[in-house]
Design goal:
- 26% of the residues lie in helices and 25% in strands.
- The chain is an alpha+beta fold.
- The chain folds into 2 domains: 100 residues, no CATH class; 260 residues, Fumarylacetoacetase-like, C-terminal domain (Fumarylacetoacetate hydrolase, domain 2, Alpha-Beta Complex).
- The strands form 4 sheets. Strands 4, 5, 6, 7, 8, 9, 10, 13, 14, 16 and 19 form an 11-stranded mixed beta sheet that branches.
- A hairpin with a 5-residue loop joins strand 13 and strand 14.
- The chain is globular.
- The N and C termini lie far apart (68 Å).
């Protein structure tokens, strides 16, 4: 097939992406055995690493100006309460908002959280210290994921580098030993202009037509630069785990990774009312075998982490701050392995507001609202152990997702069947709230 001048230009766009992406180490993530800052790493006592449970570790750097809300399990009432962080104290605001859904559906959620009175549950430091399961006193309060009845949704392939890694997974058919060779091959034909290509634009559609004609198209390129965003269900309402909890990967998976993300909290009206941090745990080998296995790769016991708190939008923090955020990640293994990475949100291919509009609108309603993982550009590629096997989790890894104005979310990796089973759903919540006279 003859290639004209316009075709050559489009090919050049596609040809230059990998030269940028594969040298991203200095800008996107640092690979291998790096040494993150001591205040961001768990302690290793030679056996099981201990969580960092400090208040300053969990909270945003401007916590004194932030409206922070979450959920705490109260053993004395055998159920959860919606709470607001007030300085060093945690206040139960359940009489104003029995569920986080109710708070986020209010006319002014930040004002409600700031002004509602309620019972003090004690010091935040004590609640955080009591949250890890291995040291928990079951008779005292502990932290939960900060959402309840909202749908838990996620946007996929929203950064160019993660899009390319999905293409590699697809080509490798879930075999990590094939990924390096495929990555090198793709790396000879892609350049950084694709990262600036607006999905669904005339230019993107022209590039799509050219690639289809050359047999280079992929379903991941379709959602990466095509007109429609990928929005999928990450977990059921009430199934997410919170800060200092275990996160689960399938024992059958030998190629998996964390996905550090900002997560928007969206009311049923479609308005984003706050944000939190999330880890969209991903099993690369399973999804790579077939995109139809996305549910098995993404939705497992304890595979969705959120927290530590929702920061509600107000005059001092909003969607523009999300757009400008930096999302960091640290993986610390019991074997001494450490990996640090970051995702600058200004590299996202689709604006967060556009992703929300793709999730909720006249074609799809969420009467209890939803939370939406916005995606990540973090895709670790260096070998952790054997040459050609890439990065994968090991049980005991502690994964910390961080962003200066949202705090830090820290979780320990275990096999999904060994994590605490999900037993407390929407029915249990409604019965508990009714017994307490809150609904």
């Amino acid at each position: 097939m003859a290639v004209g001048k316009s075709d050559s230009v489009m090919l050049l766009i596609f040809l230059r992406l990998a030269g940028f992406l594969w040298t991203l180490g200095g800008d996107g993530y640092q690979r291998g055995r790096v040494s993150p800052n001591s205040n961001a790493c768990p302690e290793n006592d030679g056996e099981t690493m201990q969580f960092e449970t400090g208040v300053s570790f969990a909270l945003p750097e401007d916590a004194e100006r932030a409206v922070l809300v979450g959920r705490v399990f109260r053993p004395e009432v055998d159920g959860p309460s919606v709470v607001a962080v007030r300085g060093a104290e945690v206040v139960d605001v359940s009489y104003a908002a029995p569920t986080m859904r109710d708070l986020c559906e209010g006319e002014a959620p930040a004002q409600m959280a700031r002004e509602s009175t309620g019972e003090s549950l004690g010091a935040l430091a004590d609640i955080l210290a009591n949250t890890p399961t291995e040291r928990r006193n079951p008779g005292k309060p502990f932290l939960l994921a900060p959402v309840d009845l909202q749908a838990v949704k996620a946007a996929g392939v929203t950064f160019a580098i993660s899009m390319l890694e999905r293409v590699i997974e697809e080509q490798a058919r879930g075999a990590p030993e094939r990924a390096a060779a495929i990555r090198a091959e793709i790396g000879t034909i892609i350049g950084d202009d694709l990262a600036r290509l607006k999905p669904g634009s005339d230019e993107a559609m022209a590039l799509k037509a050219l690639l289809v004609g050359k047999g280079l198209w992929s379903q991941y390129l379709e959602v990466g630069i095509g007109p429609d965003a990928e929005i999928f269900t990450k977990a059921q309402p009430m199934a997410a785990v919170g800060h200092l909890a275990e996160i689960g990967v399938l024992k059958a998976s030998t190629w998996n990774n964390p996905e550090p993300e900002i997560v928007l909290v969206v009311a049923s009206s479609g308005e984003a009312v706050g944000a939190t941090l999330g880890n969209d745990v991903n099993l690369r080998d399973i999804e790579g075998r077939s995109a139809l296995l996305l549910g098995k790769a993404k939705d497992n016991n304890a595979s969705a982490a959120l927290g530590p708190f929702v920061r509600l939008f107000d005059d001092g923090f909003g969607l523009d701050d999300v757009r400008a955020a930096q999302v960091g990640l640290i993986v610390a293994g019991e074997d001494g392995y450490k990996l640090e990475g970051s995702s600058p949100m200004n590299r996202i291919s689709r604006d967060p507001a556009d992703l929300v509009a793709a999730m909720i609108g006249e074609n799809h309603q969420y009467p209890d609202g939803a939370v939406l993982y916005l995606g990540t550009m973090f895709a670790p590629v260096d070998d952790r152990d054997a040459v050609g096997q890439g990065f994968t989790h090991k049980p005991g890894d502690i994964v910390t997702v961080a962003s200066p104005r949202l705090g830090r979310l820290s979780n320990r990796v275990v096999y999904a069947n060994e994590a605490s089973p999900w037993t407390y759903g929407a029915g249990a919540l409604m019965r508990n709230l009714a017994r307490r006279g809150l609904i």
